[in-house]
Amino acid sequence: MALRDLSKSYLLFSALHFAQFILAIVVIGLYGTDVDRARKAHVYSDGKWVYGIVVGSLSAVTVLFYSVPSIIRFAFVPAWSAVLFILWIALFGIFGSMFIHERAAGNGDIQRMKNAVWIDLTNALLWLIHTVSGAAYWWLHRERNSRFTGRARV
User: Fold this and answer.
1) CB of 52 within 8 A of CB of 95?
2) DSSP label at residue 149
3) Judging by beta carbons within 10 Å of its beta carbon (0-12, 13-18, 19+), is residue 95 exposed, middle or buried?
4) Does residue 71 contact residue 114 with C-beta atoms inside 8 Å?
5) Which burial class, exposed, middle or buried, applies to 101 when counting CB atoms under 10 A from its CB (0-12, 13-18, 19+)?
């Protein structure tokens, strides 16, 4: 299969999936740093950081699942993408309220978390784009039957 044989929508979805996968892995690393530090100190991990890792993991696994070319045609894809968008927005809200107005003042941990907040927002926007474009793709490429008998494919 040559690159010129692929449709433009497949290439655009592939680029979107690649960006979503990379940013999900970055978020897992950013939040995993603090969870690992808590584990080494023998203290409990804060649920907010675990939530960040879970959302990043769900996104990474979903993107791997979506990389199968025929999956994108199913109706559940935009619905699940909308759920992931809501999860990312919630993550942005949780950590945004904690770190956006915080002054780093040379503290690398706070600066790392401030950067993680903006990566969370970027992930949310990418999932919103995927939700809208996935719904449009599904609407345009869904299986349709004739209006009167319902037997013929249109």
Assistant:
1) yes
2) S
3) buried
4) no
5) exposed
DSSP per-residue codes, 49-112: HHHHHHHHHHHHHHHHHHTSTTGGGSTHHHHHHHHHHHHHHHHHHHHHHHHTT---TT-HHHHH
Is residue 31 within 8 Å of 116, Cβ to Cβ?
Answer: yes
Question: Residue 143 corresponds to which amino acid?
Answer: E
Q: What is the pTM of this model?
A: 0.84
- From first CA to last CA, the distance across the chain in angstroms is 28
Task: Return all residues near 111 (Cβ < 8 A) that are at least 6 apart.
Answer: 104
Reduced to 3 states (helix: H, G, I; strand: E, B; else coil), residue 141 is helix
pLDDT tens digits, the chain, 154 residues: what are they? 455 656 777 788 889 999 999 999 999 999 999 888 888 888 888 889 999 999 999 999 999 998 887 777 677 888 999 999 999 999 999 999 998 888 878 888 888 899 999 999 999 999 999 999 988 887 776 666 656 666 656 5
